[in-house]
């Protein structure tokens, strides 16, 4: 008998895109979970159980094995550096991580960078040979250069609307970001048949979508 797959699903913008992909792959799962306050959702018809998590926590649940697999942005994987097995690039929730600043930015003696991704930003500037102080913020990062907390920020850019509306410019695009399917290393061995079947189904939808 097939084993139930415990899936850590990020609430928010990734969920909507991931659920559409799962449904295209023939899995009967809810398209939206914004209405529910329930955090664990049994989905016996899909052979799954969804654990609805904050996006940044998904790799933690998977690393500890309380979820067998999870869906998470590459930005979070780079930042968190958890021991999980990256199985598939789902090609959804596409955006980029960039260095952003005011149009008249020039390098000063003391440079401060605000970001939700302090590890990624510190590593990036170290590799570039730039000495910067990194300040961690948890949202509305674009505020920082506008009100003088930081000279530049490292943040996600998708449509560029947030930058335009706040008079900021994208100085460097650091990485392309998409969501990934990740697995716990033990689960990948113990539930290999179920995980592989899911990967195969998703892979065919991803291929079909790239051809379009
Ligand atoms: N425009 C975008 N801005 C930020 N993240 C994006 C964007 N487009 C796609 N993503 C992806 O979506 C993920 C963020 O999802 P979301 O915005 O729902 O959560 P969050 O803001 O990190 O969390 P929360 O709102 O629960 O604090 C990122 O990790 C990234 O991979
Ligand atoms: O290029 P755009 O399409 O404008 O998207 C980018 C914006 O979206 C994200 O913010 P989010 O909506 O997650 O809010 P937050 O600032 O609270 O994290 C990100 O941090 C940018 O601010």
Write up this protein.
- The protein has a six-stranded mixed β-sheet with strand order 2-3-1-4-11-5, with helices on both faces.
- It has helices at residues 13-24, 58-64, 74-80, 118-127, 143-146, 161-165, 185-190, 192-211; strands spanning 5-10, 40-43, 48-53, 69-73, 85-89, 95-101, 112-115, 133-136, 152-157, 169-177, 179-183.
- The mean pLDDT is 96.
- It contains eight helices and eleven strands.
- The chain folds into two domains: 5-93 and 178-211, 3-Layer(aba) Sandwich (D-Maltodextrin-Binding Protein, domain 2), CATH 3.40.190; 95-176, 3-Layer(aba) Sandwich (D-Maltodextrin-Binding Protein, domain 2), CATH 3.40.190.10.
- The longest helix has 20 residues, at 192-211.
- With 212 residues, the chain is α/β, with parallel strands linked by helices.
- The two termini are 36 Å apart.
- Strand 7 (112-115), helix 4 and strand 8 (133-136) form a beta-alpha-beta unit.
- Bound molecules: adenosine-5'-triphosphate and 1-O-pyrophosphono-5-O-phosphono-alpha-D-ribofuranose.
- Heteromultimer composed of HisG and HisZ subunits.
- One of its GO terms (molecular function) is ATP phosphoribosyltransferase activity.
């Amino acid at each position: 008998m097939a084993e139930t797959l415990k899936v850590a699903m990020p609430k928010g913008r990734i969920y909507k895109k991931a659920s559409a992909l799962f449904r295209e792959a023939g899995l009967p799962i809810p398209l939206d979970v914004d209405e529910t306050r329930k955090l664990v959702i049994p989905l016996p018809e899909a052979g799954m159980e969804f654990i609805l998590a904050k996006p940044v926590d998904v790799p933690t649940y998977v690393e500890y094995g309380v979820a067998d697999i999870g869906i998470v942005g590459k930005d979070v994987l780079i930042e968190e550096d958890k021991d999980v097995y990256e199985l598939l690039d789902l090609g959804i929730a596409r955006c980029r991580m960039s260095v952003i600043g005011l149009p008249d930015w020039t390098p000063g003696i003391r440079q401060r960078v605000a970001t939700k991704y302090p590890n990624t930003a510190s590593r990036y500037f170290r590799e570039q040979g730039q000495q910067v102080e990194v300040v961690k913020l948890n949202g509305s990062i674009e505020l920082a250069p506008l009100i003088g907390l930081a000279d530049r920020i490292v943040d996600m850019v998708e449509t560029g609307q947030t930058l335009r509306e706040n008079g900021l410019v994208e100085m460097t695009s650091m990485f392309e970001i998409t969501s990934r399917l990740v697995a716990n290393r033990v689960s990948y061995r113990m539930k290999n048949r179920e995980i592989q079947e899911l990967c195969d189904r998703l892979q065919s939808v991803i291929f079909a979508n790239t051809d379009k």
